[in-house]
Amino acid sequence: MVHKETFVNLGFDTEQSDLRSKAGAGHRHSTLSSFKSRSVTYSWENIEVYAEEKRTNCFTRSPQVPEKILKNVTGCVGPGEFLAIMGASGAGKTTLLNCLTFRNTGKLKILGQRYLNGEAINIETLARLSGYVQQNDLFIPTLTVKEHLKFQALLRMDEIFSYDERMRRVNEAIQELGLTKCMDTVIGHADISGGERKRLAFASETLTNPSLIFCDEPTSGLDSFMAYNIIQVLKTIALTGKTVVCSIHQPSSDVFDLFDRILLMAEGRTAFFGPVPDCLSFFSSQGLSCPSNYNPADFYIRTLATMAGDEAESKKKIAEICDVYESSEASRLVSATAKANSTNSNPKIQESDGNKVNNSPYKVSWFAQFKAVLWRSFITVIREPTVFKVKMIQTIFIAVMVALIFQGHALQFVSIRNIQGGFLILVSNATFIHIYGVVSVITNEIPTFLREHRIGMYRTDVYFLSKTLADLPSDFIFPFVFTLITYHAIGLNVLVASSTENAINSVTPLVTPLMYIGGFYIQNSAVPAYLDWMRYLSWFMYGNEALSINQWVGIQFNDTACPDGVCIGEHILNDYDYNPDFYYRDILGLCALIVGFRVLAFFALLRKTYNLVSLSLGSLMDFEKIKGMLFANDANPDRAKAVVINLHRSTGGGGKEVGRITGGGGKEGGKSTGGGKLLT
Which residue ranges run through the membrane (predicted)? Predict the structure, then answer.
């Protein structure tokens, strides 16, 4: 049923049936015109994907043959076109989308070619010209919609744009995507609907006016109305001359009618590729007519699905459909179009204005990244007053309880143990009051950080330094309040090493063992030799010893319980195996741990983002060239491909992608155009 739907959020009225006819008519003025955008045609030829071969062991009789996930998938999509990749679960849509976007292919071996306007591409080129809207929306919940887009604009738009131009673009994106009503609403609040969150994800990707937009299941988790609204947004973007590709599972009939082209996949093969209206006639030609008043999308997916209990017959039917398509005129036309796009007949994708292309994976300088990330980090801290209040109440409550317990203890022999226990409480409380907060924040923010870092928004060291500086105020406030309340109640001397409070805020999963060997529960001399090295990694040892030295050096008081009726501070230190001469060593040790643990934390974070691209024989040479050299007279392409994979494996190359898929194999006979820069 065709119904009239008003594009309230997009600023114009139209009917669903008129959308496609307006593609080239310039149906509305786009404010994107002030930002340069290129028209691109994206094509891919003979994409084949193999699952990584499992390693053999003593229990494996023979090596397993790599599973073939995608089989000779070819396609092409041009400017102003909206392509939907469809298929049943396990058909290969996500794998194909990952191949087209260079994402999550680390454990796959890939054959085939990809071109933008006839040029073999790599991840850098694609990232510069495309946007990618992922299935799961990740946002910092403490930012408002406008603040989120401001952050995106500060880091994703080129340095040639001024601050005012960036903010103007943010306002334009808000209006274009219908986010005006919620632009000052905090993203984490319930007032933001699922559709608004998805449109915010689109706005984030369209800020830079990309020529090519990919979407992974954009309607996932949305009701039918919201799903239709979201696909309308994508259709409108395509009508401005963009190339839009999305994977979608089971669209409604209204949503399905918005697509220009459709790629149906089944069992890793292409069942159909072409204009949406041609799909019905293709299936009808095989005696598979879609019933009247039936959703065509449901019909296609049901026809190409493997039915439980009838797998053999279903797979046979799917194979027949795919075979018919591969031998059809439509398939030959798609292959010819893809090949034509690989002959460099389209405009070059490099800069044409004479400006030098920025080889850095980042759009802005280190300092600009630092300012933006630090701004967001401080907002995140400030916008969580409840967390601050709870931690402050917890700190004051525990401090008061400790003060009441230790209050009134005179300086005598029996109170020595109490004072030493107070030192442990000081260090332990300052440690544990922060460790849970850090774990919670890192767990929530790491997925967002990894996604933003991967698309080249900011460096790892920028994020780490910004988070460290934003957390510094609370790192000092809570230990200071706790110490202020408890220190005099326990009866300690005023002069205390200020570096202790910093050191005990370092985060480590070895808190409990380090506390046990810190010198309170067991004397240093009693620690087994094979664990003695751990003492020097324990801030409990340095903190307890420094506090004890500060407390007992020069102290002398009379008590009949002490030898000769006199308690000498140095003797107390000796009982705990503390050396009075190690005070400054302990302070330096605490400082070293502050730096050391933070450096380790930084490299642990860096390791998550480390993506080294290693070239091997397979990634330097075009598959067709290898096949020509090795099997000039061999008509069996599968044998040639198997040899290529074995050659790649035998070289020990770390690169997983074989052939021009990594950006090689252009006119220069397989020379690599770059394997992607290392993001740090």
Answer: 392-411, 423-442, 476-498, 510-531, 587-606
Nearest to 491 by CA among 568, 436, 378, 414: 414
Q: Are residues 585 and 641 in the same domain?
A: no
Domain of 14, CATH number, reads 3.40.50.300
Task: Supply the range of the domain harboring residue 138.
Answer: 4-341
C-alpha span between 490 and 423 (Å, rounded): 9
Together in a domain, 233 and 163: yes
Alpha helices in 327-406 (DSSP H): 329-341, 366-382, 385-406
- Same domain? For 394 and 281 the reply is no
- Lowest-confidence range among 233-237, 501-505, 630-634? 501-505
> pLDDT at residue 646 above 50?
no
Q: For every residue of 18-71, which 3-state class applies, written as one string?
A: HCHHHCCCCCCCCHHHHCCCCCCCEEEEEEEEEECCCCCCCCCCCCCCCCEEEE
Q: What percent of the chain has pLDDT over 90?
A: 22
Q: Do 249 and 374 belong together in one domain?
A: no
Q: Average pLDDT for residues 351-357, to the nearest whole number?
A: 44
- HEC string of 283-339 equals HHCCCCCCCCCCCHHHHHHHHCCCCCCCHHHHHHHHHHHHHHHHCCHHHHHHHHHHH
Question: What's the confidence (pLDDT) of residue 65?
Answer: 64
Same domain, 505 and 585: yes
Reduced to 3 states, what is the DSSP secondary structure of residue 351?
coil
Alpha helices for 457-582 (secondary structure H): 460-490, 499-503, 511-516, 539-552, 569-575
Euclidean distance between CA atoms 465 and 509, whole angstroms? 21
Residue pair 461/602 in contact by the 8 Å Cβ criterion:
yes
Cα 208 to Cα 363: distance, rounded to the nearest angstrom: 11
Nearest to 661 by CA among 162, 25, 5, 50: 50
b/e map of 460-479 (b: 16 or more CB within 10 Å)? bebbbbbbeebbeebbeebb
Q: What is the pLDDT of residues 46-101, one digit of tens each?
A: 999 988 765 555 555 555 667 888 999 999 999 999 999 999 888 888 899 989 98
Per the structure, how many domains does the chain have?
3
Q: What is the pTM of this model?
A: 0.68
- Helix count (H) and strand count (E) of the chain? 23, 14
The residue to which tokens 């690989």 are assigned: 342
Q: Quick one: 86 and 202 in the same domain?
A: yes
Is the same domain home to 522 and 570? yes
Find the angle CA(9)-CA(15)-CA(18) to the nearest 5 degrees.
120
Answer yes or no: is 677 within a domain: no
Residue 523: per-residue pLDDT: 52
Q: Is 599 helix (H, G, I), strand (E, B) or coil?
A: helix
C-alpha–C-alpha distance, residues 540 and 15, integer Å: 71
Sheet holding 119-120, edge to edge: 68-77, 42-51, 108-116, 119-120
Q: Quote the Cα angle for 614-616-619, to 5°.
A: 95
Residue 277 belongs to a domain: yes
* Residue 347 located in a structural domain: no
CA 477 centroid distance within chain? 32
- Please name the amino acid found at residue 38: R
